[in-house]
Amino acid sequence: MAKTLTVKYYVEPDPVALARRAAQHFVEMAEEAVSLRGRARIAISGGSTPRAAFELLADPTLGWRARMPWGKLDLFWVDERCVPPDDPASNYRMTREAMLERVPMRSPQIHRIEGEQEPEAAAARYESELRNSFRLEGAESPRFDLVALGMGSDGHTASLFPHTQALHEMSLLVASNHVPQKNSWRVTLTWPVINEARSVFFLISGAAKAQVLHDVFIGPRDPERLPSQLIWPSGGILTLFLDKAAAALLPATDAEGCGVLERHR
């Protein structure tokens, strides 16, 4: 894994513009993956900001829906709550309602985490799904073309929460994780798997995230407290798409709304 991490961040004026930027990025990365490798394998996260981007991708009046190579896309989830797929808290349900019900994807292309199972069983079934989909052997890890992440105000990403067991899991592709602060179980990709992706980006909005963004990318390294610091892609580049409120405590961007930070280990 790269010892130096280049963090490129792009700042949009508001959440609406941020959702547009995210939709554009999804399409561009999918097009690139299909052009180079014939398929696009993308892992997505839940939350209100991704939902807005998914709704834009599914909108037939916009150009992104027509451009997205839906027939050559495999969609995975970064994490899931241990709830049934029709539960309001389900990341899968959010994605289905915002996008999947309105786009031409077939069920074999949609690889959900079975949150209705017991946590360990759900994690094992999803790991098996990854191994089969990517045709992995032995200790091989899947390499997603794109992983989309969010960040909580506590510094968590995926379902890698502060001071939880999954932060220390390095041998499994998928972990079940008890989150005492949420009084719940989650299933999550482990951070080494996320870091193997060809491209990783965070999508973050709101003033409530400004301080944690500063702490994660400018403050001292403490991944036990700030699990988002574990995201250190093997290619050495991490992208952030932010709105102005979330980026308030980061260094000012250039005239095109772009900034660059470097982290070292």
Description:
The protein is an alpha/beta fold. It has one domain: Rossmann fold, CATH 3.40.50.1360. Helix content is 29%, strand content 22%. It has seven helices and eleven strands. It has helices spanning 15-37, 48-58, 63-67, 91-98, 119-134, 191-195, 210-217, and strands at 4-12, 40-44, 73-77, 79-81, 110-111, 146-149, 174-179, 184-189, 200-204, 237-243, 258-264. The strands form two sheets. Strands 5-3-2-6-9-10-1-11 form an eight-stranded mixed β-sheet. Strands 4-8-7 form a three-stranded antiparallel β-sheet. Strand 9 (200-204), helix 7 and strand 10 (237-243) form a beta-alpha-beta unit. Helix 1 (15-37) packs across helix 2. The radius of gyration is 17 Å and the shape is globular. The N and C termini lie close together (11 Å). The mean pLDDT is 96.
How many structural units, i.e. domains? Answer: 1
Distance between the termini: 11 Å
Q: Report the C-alpha radius of gyration, rounded.
A: 17 Å
Major sheet: order of its strands? 5-3-2-6-9-10-1-11
| pLDDT < 50 stretches | none
Q: Secondary-structure element sequence?
A: EHEHHEEHEHEEEHEHEE
- Work out the helix count: 7
The CATH architecture can be given as: 3-Layer(aba) Sandwich
Q: Any idea of the CATH class?
A: Alpha Beta
